[in-house]
Amino acid sequence: MLKDITFGQYFPVDSVVHKADPRTKILLLIGFIIFTFVCNNFFSLVFLATSVLAIVVLTNIPLIIYLKNFKAVLPVVIFATVLNMFYVKTGVVLVDWWIFTITVDGILRAVFMALRVVLLIMMSAIFSYTTTPTSITNALESLLKPLKYIKLESAVHVLSMAMTITLRFIPTLIEETEKIMNAQKARGADIETGNLLKRAKALIPILIPLFISSIHHAYDLAESMECRCYVGGVGRTKFNKMRYGTVDIIGGICFLVICCVIILLNILF
């Protein structure tokens, strides 16, 4: 299951979304996340989902790669869906047994929340797959430049770099975890059966080498940055300068149209 998690990876594909400025993609991602919660009925949420699927098609990345991310979070989505289904008590009652009551409104609320979670994961994956870690760092620095007026310009660079390194090492740590688990299984370790306490104890031989491996990766990265005389912060120049283009303008206009339609659907329905 871990090897199917592709979040944090970059797929170098020639597409319109890849060519967009990373600052535009960050702003649009924030906007889409906000409007995911602005949607208050199925009509507006389905329209937003259709728009997100259209962006997925524009990325030229196979849909199966996006769907792989849901294997790891599927139990969480199911748990949240079931919880919302039992939480709502209004509407026509379908099942009323002991302390459990399932209503039509509860089922609709559960499906609505599940679709929201799926959209959030999908939008984050689109941004991750189409933007390089370096571009994310540069974009965050550029967007947070106003903080220099309160003497936080160096802190902005450190924060941007830390976030980028975190995204960069997600696939690496997943791969390391998979290797360690396979090595433990080859030695006869049983990490998939038993009760919850037994499974938790079985994770100790996996977490300890993973923690040590993470420290080694951190030291290697620090030495590599020192050998290249890396000095972040004020005065650091960029090899590739970011520029807004036609794709960014069209993307912004399309986003405004989507927002207007969502607001209209919220009012009408």
Gyration radius, in Å = 22 Å
Beta-strand segment tally:
2
The percentage helix is: 55-70%
Tell me what portion of residues adopts beta-strand conformation. under 5%
Order of helices and strands: HHHHHEEHHHHHH
Distance between the termini: 40 Å
Q: Reading side by side through the largest sheet, how are the strands ordered?
A: 1-2
Roughly what is the average pLDDT, rounded to an integer?
Answer: 81
Word description of this protein:
It is a single chain. With about 270 residues, the chain is mainly α. The chain has helices at about 15-20, 20-40, 40-60, 65-70, 70-85, 105-130, 135-145, 155-185, 195-200, 205-225, 245-269, and strands spanning about 95, 100-105. It has a two-stranded antiparallel sheet with strand order 1-2. Strand 1 and strand 2 form a beta hairpin. Helix 2 (about 20-40) packs antiparallel against helix 6, helix 5 runs antiparallel to helix 6 (about 105-130) and helix 7 runs antiparallel to helix 8 (about 155-185). The two termini are about 40 Å apart. The mean pLDDT is about 80.
Topology:
Layout lengths: L15 H4 L2 H17 L3 H17 L4 H6 L1 H18 L5 E5 L2 E4 H27 L2 H11 L9 H34 L9 H7 L1 H24 L18 H23 L1
Antiparallel strand pairs: 1-2
Helix pairs in contact: 2-6, 2-11, 3-6, 3-11, 5-6, 7-8, 8-10
Short description:
With about 270 residues, the protein is mainly alpha-helical. The protein has 11 helices and 2 strands, in the order αααααββαααααα. Strands 1-2 form a two-stranded antiparallel sheet.
Label this structure with key terms.
269 residues; mainly alpha; two-stranded antiparallel ribbon
